Amino acid sequence: MMPAWWRTDPCAPFRIGPREFPGRIWTASGCFAYGLTGHEMTAPGYASPYEGLGAVVTKTITPEPRAGNPMPRLVETPAGALNSIGLENVGLREFVRDVMPRLEAAAVPFVASIAATCPEQFSDLARAVQTAGAKMRHWHGLELNLSCPNVAEGGHDFGKDPDTVAACVSAAGGGAGDRALLVKLTPNVGDIAALARAAAAAGAHAVSAVNTFVGLDVDLATGRPCLPRRFGGYSGAAILPLALAKVDEIVRKAQVPVVGVGGIGSADDALKYFALGAVAVQVGTAQMRDPFCAARIARQLQTG
Ligand SMILES: Cc1cc2nc3c(=O)[nH]c(=O)nc-3n(C[C@H](O)[C@H](O)[C@H](O)COP(=O)(O)O)c2cc1C
């Protein structure tokens, strides 16, 4: 039973900046790979896991392919998951030559997630994706993942400083062309609304909030952290109230559309983001457990 205030069709087109998206329920970067294998998956009553989806945000790509961090990279906790994947990805060349054309041919709506180590690299990546996607109907936008260390600034995360957020958005802006430019925000800061304001002032059409929270788990057998790099990114059901609080802060203190991400595993979870003012939502960890999770949410939230 839907609450009385919910009157939105999550599968109806809506705009972010210059671009019309086919729906408001998306999958989050890194949690549905490149979105290429869904047609091989089956679930009773569903044609595919793409049914009703507004976008697949593809795994973040970097200029060169990356092998990622040593194993183990993913640890399950009672109410979430801790990961330290290290941005394993196929790199820009394979992404534009192989992944993007296949997504287009399969009519999968997608947003390309990109990460770099300086604003100039963001500019190069954005332009390369734009060139490859200029004539594609199903490429809807860019999502800048600013969780990488900024090499030029001594290795601090780009995403934690409003000025560097603005520099990356400005650098990538031209490369989004007539598509939406989104910025994925880290929640590991005191004032997330300041980041959102900086992104919007520099030309971002929306922010995606949030990326993972810094976490650590300990293996009691060894007495050492479970992950080789000690810390990881915490996600899943446990972070829902934390992520909702960050989204609420942005909605109240920044004038920019918000795509809510964090802890969504059901239609009710998604509704909480919409109640706070999010324009769309992304399903992450829950999509790894059930590749039809986002499609189920899209169907359950339909009002008609
Ligand atoms: C295994 C894994 C890999 C991820 N990879 C990326 C990534 O490449 N780029 C990115 O922006 N976020 C990445 N994320 C973060 C998710 O997109 C999402 O922001 C976060 O997990 C919170 O949502 P959730 O609680 O629904 O998982 C990853 C998360 C997980 C669990």
Key terms:
304 residues, alpha/beta, TIM Barrel, 8-stranded parallel beta barrel, 4-stranded antiparallel sheet
SS content category: alpha/beta
User: Which residue ranges are poorly predicted, with pLDDT under 50 across at least 5 consecutive positions?
Assistant: none
Q: Give the distinct bound molecules.
A: flavin mononucleotide
Number of helices: 8
- CATH homologous superfamily title: Aldolase class I
Total separate domains: 1
Shape: globular
Please tell me how large the radius of gyration is: 18 Å
CATH class term: Alpha Beta
Strands, total number: 16
Strand order within the widest beta sheet: 3-4-7-8-9-10-15-16
Straight-line distance between termini: 12 Å
Query: What is the averaged pLDDT score?
Result: 95
* Order of secondary-structure elements: EEEEEEHEHEHEHEEEEEHEHEHH
Q: Please name the CATH topology.
A: TIM Barrel
- CATH architectural type: Alpha-Beta Barrel
Strand content: 15-25%
Helix content: 25-40%
